[in-house]
Amino acid sequence: MKRVFLLILTNLAILLVASIVMSILGVNTQTMGGLLVFAAIFGFGGAFISLAISKWMAKKTMGCEVITQPRDNTEHWLLETVARQAQQAGIKMPEVAIYQSPELNAFATGPSKNNSLVAVSTGLLYGMSADEVEAVLAHEVSHVANGDMVTLTLIQGVMNTFVIFAARVVAGIINNFVASNDEEGEGLGTIAYMAVVFVLDMLFGILASMVVAYFSRIREFRADEGAARLAGKNKMIAALERLRTGPETGAMPANMSAFGINGKRSMTELFMSHPPLEKRIEALRNRG
Predict the structure, then answer these.
(1) DSSP 259
(2) Which of 89, 97, 125, 234 could form a disulfide with 64 if both were Cys (CB 3.0 to 4.6 A apart)?
(3) Of 148, 174, 162, nearest to 258 (Cα)?
(4) Which of 140, 248, 278, 282 is catalytic?
């Protein structure tokens, strides 16, 4: 219930900010240029607002407990390991957190390289060896160092803009076609037009999600390579092998799963945010 409330609150904030910006700019959506501006404001606005509050959202939705003062040797080792890897990667020390979950997973998020959060599940922290956890942390630190959160946000913004713009352009074409073949020349009614836009949003959204997933899979390979440099190739391969034999993922919300090291499986790779673990292991083994 808490996650649903936060999601609704975020979307309302996006709508409010976008509406204010459109009002200030005097955007007229009846023109092609105005429609494109409208699409870009909502497309990029939503993506960047989500990025700006990503750390806050992650802490709230996942129940992350940020480590400020280590309570035991495990937490002390966790902070030291992330600090060392962050220094090697040339970024500021991320916030480090633990969240309660039996699944083997971890994620990184944040609006910039020097304002980030690395979080691990209790299942991963206490269910994997120290070498494997070190490799997973290196993978997440590499995501931060590569600027993957910002990159994926830009890609998502472009795709959002495409979906909003294309759906309304095609709906307009359909409306004009109906009007030209209608004796009264009225075209689609308001409700019918909105229904067409909704269906097109869904269809174009599916195509857009495939593009975003493709780039997400590429960044996973890059983060694996970064982890191999920071922690060692054999440790990273061992960590991926352990994830492959571990339990099915699913506890992480959809808005966070793309940032986890262990992504949800799908019937088709086209919609997967993470490459199959077998392919990731093979890529590392073939790496010089």
Answers:
(1) T
(2) 97
(3) 148
(4) 140
**Residue indicated by tokens 């392919």:** 279
Tens of pLDDT, residues 144-198: 999 999 999 899 999 988 998 888 888 888 888 877 776 665 667 778 888 888 9
The conformation of residue 258, written as its DSSP 8-state character, comes to T
Instruction: Let me know how many helices (H) and strands (E) the chain has, helices first.
Output: 11, 4
Q: What is the pTM of this model?
A: 0.83
Q: Measured over all CA atoms, what is the biggest interatomic distance in the chain, rounded to whole angstroms?
A: 79
- Looking at residues 216-237, what average pLDDT do you find? 94
The answer to whether 178 and 187 are in contact (CB under 8 A) is: yes
Written as one string, the DSSP assignment of 5-44 is HHHHHHHHHHHHHHHHHHHHHT--TTSHHHHHHHHHHHHH
**Amino acid identity for residue 15 in this structure:** L
Predicted confidence (pLDDT) per residue in 89-130, tens digit: 999 999 999 999 999 999 999 999 999 999 999 999 999 999
pLDDT band at 49 (very low <50, low <70, confident <90, very high): confident
Distances (CA, A) of 220 to 7, 23, 30: 26, 40, 41
Catalytic residue flag (residue 140): yes
Q: Are strands 95-99 and 115-121 parallel, antiparallel or unpaired?
A: parallel
Three-class SS of residue 260? strand
**List of residues 6+ apart from 62 with CB closer than 8 A:** 99, 101, 119, 252, 253, 256
DSSP notation for 74-115: HHHHHHHHHHHHHHHHT-PPPEEEEE--SS--EEEEEEETTE
pLDDT over 90 percentage in the chain: 48
